Amino acid sequence: MSDLPPDISHDQHAVRRQKLADLRATGVDPFRANFATTHFSGDAIKAYVEGQENTVTVAVAGRLVVIRDMGKSQFVKILDQQGQIQLYVKKDVVGDEVYAGFKKFDLGDILGAKGTLFKTKTGEITVRVEALTLVAKALRPLPEKWHGLSDPEQVYRQRYLDLIVNEESRKRLMLRSRIVSHIRRFLEDQQFIEVETPVLQNIAGGAAARPFTTHHNTLGVDFVLRISLELYLKRMLVAGYDRVFEIGRNFRNEGVSRRHNPEFTMLEVYQAYSDYRGMMTLIKNLLTTLCLDVLGTSEIKHAASGQVINFGGPWREVKYKDLIRTETGDPEWFSRTKAEKIAGAEKLGLSVNPVWEEFEITNEIFSKKIEPTLIQPTFVTHLPKELCPLAKITPDDPSTIDVFELCIGGMEIAPAYSEQNDPDVQRAMFEAQAGEEKQNIDQDFLLALEHGMPPAGGMGVGIDRLCILLTGAESIRDVILFPQLRPGSA
């Protein structure tokens, strides 16, 4: 049974199939191998010189999305990577045969056109077409309404259609590309080196998450898809690469939500001879310049709260423990018994699993009651040591680690650490986390640490979440080109 929307009818498909057969019968290739363009649409429009009509020649190509038939001439618009450009096709310019063929073109067909630029009476820069070519025939029609797709499932399952008919989606996902490009340029300007580390790994390390498992037939062994970039990037610090980063996919076999997708993109960056405070400076400079260069402003409106988030102002810094004490109204929270903490959490309206550890009860308060309120850029520092075994212990408080979580728009955007480089302390923390499952400890990473890793600051940035924040998207699915879905027909 087809999942195609009702406006894609079998009759239209049959008509287009007949047109395809007619084209082939006349010797026309309806699927050309190439078409030489000189400009994208936006560049062609910029190439127009005021007052010099029909002096600038361009060759453009794109999908036919608008037709205005005027008898012996037509104004049409094609869509390419940069947007739309108008074409003016006139019978006595292109010739009777070409014009007759053009009149049979359908919305969705991909055309190539060559001609000169002029400005219409309404002020629109237009190509006066001198030569016209059908580059690729569309056998399926576009959705009839020029307002995007009405079925949310179809938006994600047939993203290519969504990007054709939904200008908002096109802009959002183009903005994502610009965001990632800016991050790369910024880090390279700071002398960071981009590296690539394995996706297939023996042990799922660097985070606490359920991995996906696969099997390598030739080697006869199971691998996991990585859940984090961290441990291999730290090996690069051992190797003498003092500033490294990777932008890559991680995979976690866990829940799907508005902020979680099984496959997601992370930036991880490590800087030798730095610490978590060095990472504060790095992320603030990165996001401030990103907003100015890509968005053109240091302020964005947070859709959910209506607040204006100001990246150019002071960024708040507050300790995790202070936030918990304030939220619970209990200055002595961290000296309370587990039973008292359960009662305190339930008093706040939270459901607590009695098997949870004390730090998990406390962190439930943070994640459910505190984090959603942190709209302005906020560095939450000195988290409980149990939350991350890969960071240095705070010298004056052995119950916490030297880390921050950068929260913006009510969600975590970037955690950062003063990285643990003592191999003995690291081993002890790994063993405490692993419990009886000692086989899950990455012994090769510990071996690398024993060769000496310089002190370092490390940071991860969730690219998808950052794009949600900066584009005003409602869901992680809106900023991923092809999010994971249950199997289904297109």
Secondary structure elements and pairings:
Elements lengths: L9 H16 L15 H7 L9 E13 L3 E8 L2 E8 H4 L1 H7 L7 E10 L5 E12 L15 H6 L1 H7 L1 H23 L3 E2 L5 E2 L11 E4 L4 E5 L4 H9 L4 E9 L11 E10 L3 H20 L3 E3 L6 E3 L5 E4 H9 L9 H10 L10 H13 L7 E4 L11 E2 L2 E5 L1 E6 L2 E8 L4 H12 L8 H8 L5 E7 H9 L19
Parallel strand pairs: 3-5, 6-10, 14-15
Antiparallel strand pairs: 1-2, 1-4, 2-3, 4-5, 7-9, 8-9, 10-11, 11-20, 12-13, 15-18, 16-17, 18-19, 19-20
Would you write up a description of this structure?
The chain is elongated and about 85 Å long. It has 490 residues and is of the alpha+beta class. Helix 11 (338-347) packs parallel to helix 12. The chain contains 15 helices and 20 strands. The chain has two domains: 10-142, Nucleic acid-binding proteins (OB fold (Dihydrolipoamide Acetyltransferase, E2P), Beta Barrel), CATH 2.40.50; 164-315 and 376-479, BirA Bifunctional Protein, domain 2 (2-Layer Sandwich), CATH 3.30.930. The longest helix has 23 residues, at 167-189. It has helices at 10-25, 41-47, 91-94, 96-102, 152-157, 159-165, 167-189, 230-238, 276-295, 320-328, 338-347, 358-370, 423-434, 443-450, 463-471, and strands at 57-69, 73-80, 83-90, 110-119, 125-136, 193-194, 200-201, 213-216, 221-225, 243-251, 263-272, 299-301, 308-310, 316-319, 378-381, 393-394, 397-401, 403-408, 411-418, 456-462. The strands form five sheets. The protein has an eight-stranded mixed β-sheet with strand order 6-10-11-20-19-18-15-14, with helices on both faces. Strands 1-2-3-5-4 form a five-stranded mixed beta barrel.
